[in-house]
Write a structure and sequence with these properties.
This protein is an alpha+beta fold and 423 residues long. The chain is built from 6 helices and 23 strands. Strands 1, 2, 17, 18, 19, 20, 21, 22 and 23 form a 9-stranded mixed sheet that branches. Helix 2 runs antiparallel to helix 3.
Length: 423
């Protein structure tokens, strides 16, 4: 007969202690095995691009017609006809309106008859004076009457001519402000406004520059690096709000002689060819004005520039393949997506152009060499492609030195959202 063993409280405590001891031994064995190390992240690096560039300053302005004329009649009368369609292109001398000419023809006939009579009376007075039949005073009075009637005749002829209201310039006419049959007033300060005509080609572009810009241009002119726009036709390029490229090209032709004391700005003006009539008076535009002479600059893709509060920085890889934050002074943004770096980088620095999200200050990285190349060459494995500006000198060469528009490669487009935006 088997005897059943009865467990006591002391025996149960012993079992628990044994189980805990086994767990502790297993934990110690696991702690002795080290966790596998994290792989060193790879980043693409490249030295800054170096090329000759020209800075272009941006301004917002408005187009304005070179000539704008308010068409008003020079004589009063009833409007007889309108000889144009609203918005039509007209030429100088085209008849736009006709005022009823009949009263003016009657005035002309009356003035001509009076003048002819005065001429005859003067001729008779000359004969009588030769015979000493009349005094010299009478002859002088007849001469005066002839001159007065001649002036009245000339005035009547002009008034009849003024019944045809003509376009004074070439351009586009607005709508008619009056209808046929209305009585219009003319020849005075409150003469009826009939319509307006504005010239189209070329067209002016007005903008405001700051006091600091004016002083900088003066210093550049004195240093012989950039001529002043008040004395030189510096190039200016404009794009409209729905355009990407600055295709409307002209030159400066006026800078005001004083600053506006209320705004601290000075007015500038450029003249832009407008052969196709795309540029309407009143349109806004964004302009680029030649801002410097040519100089050699270092450039990096704008997407790799980050912002730390008010400071701008890029990530570089040091000699020991460690990521570092390098604060820089950015310059102008080029059309191809590269931004000038004025200070903070050297031409041998290795700038991180791809993999920014994996690079942290002080972190070891594996650099993979890349390149920032021109748009005319094959696309790089990372970064923004750009076409190098041709080496040239002078204001004329500056126009040709503008960087061309280029696309961003797929890897450059994958830069983190924290990258700095174009200024």
């Amino acid at each position: 007969m088997c005897t059943m063993l009865k467990q006591t409280p002391r025996s149960r405590q012993g079992l628990l202690l044994a189980a805990l001891s086994a767990l502790l031994v297993a934990a110690c064995q696991d702690a002795g095995v080290a966790a596998p190390p994290m792989p060193t992240p790879e980043v693409t690096v490249a030295t800054p691009a170096k090329r000759q560039i020209t800075d272009w300053d941006e301004y917002i302005g408005r187009f304005q017609a070179i000539e704008r004329v308010e068409v008003r009649a020079r004589v009063s009368g009833y409007l007889e006809s309108i000889n144009f369609d609203d918005g039509q292109i007209v030429s100088e001398g085209d008849v736009l309106f006709v005022v009823d000419p009949r009263p003016f023809k009657i005035d002309l006939d009356r003035a001509r008859a009076q003048y002819e009579l005065a001429v005859k009376e003067y001729a008779r007075a000359v004969d009588l004076r030769k015979k000493r039949a009349i005094a010299q005073e009478v002859l002088d009075r007849r001469a005066q009457e002839r001159s007065v009637t001649k002036a009245a005749l000339d005035e009547a002829e002009l008034n009849l001519e003024f019944t045809e209201v003509k376009s004074p310039i070439n351009g586009r006419v607005s709508r008619s402000a009056v209808d046929v049959g209305n009585l219009i007033t003319g020849g005075s300060a409150d003469a009826s406004l009939l319509t307006t005509v504005v010239s189209l080609d070329p067209i002016h572009f007005y903008f405001q520059g700051s006091e600091s810009d004016l002083l900088r241009y003066i210093r550049l002119d004195r240093a012989g690096e950039r001529p002043r726009s008040s004395t030189n036709a510096n190039p200016l390029h404009v794009r409209l709000q729905d355009e990407d490229n600055y295709d409307h090209r002209g030159h400066m032709d006026f800078v005001d002689n004083e600053l506006d004391a209320s705004t601290g700005t000075i007015e500038g003006r450029a003249i832009i060819p407008n052969p196709d009539g795309v540029l309407y008076p009143g349109l806004f535009g964004r302009a680029r004005l030649l801002g410097s002479g040519q100089y050699e600059a270092l450039l990096v893709p704008d997407e790799v520039i980050g912002t730390d509060q008010s400071r701008r920085f890029v990530m570089v890889v040091g000699a020991e393949n460690t990521a570092e934050m390098r604060f820089i002074e950015p310059g102008t943004l080029q059309d191809d997506g590269l931004r000038v770096v004025r200070q903070g980088l050297s031409e041998n620095d290795r700038v991180v152009i791809n993999g920014l999200q994996r690079a942290r200050p002080g972190m070891a990285v594996v650099p993979v060499e890349g390149e920032i190349r021109g748009a005319a060459q094959s696309e790089s494995v990372a970064g923004v492609t750009t076409e190098a500006a041709p080496a040239a000198t002078g204001v004329e060469a500056a126009e040709a030195a503008q960087p061309s528009q280029a696309a961003v490669t797929s890897e450059a487009a994958s830069m983190p959202e924290a990258a700095a935006q174009p200024q």
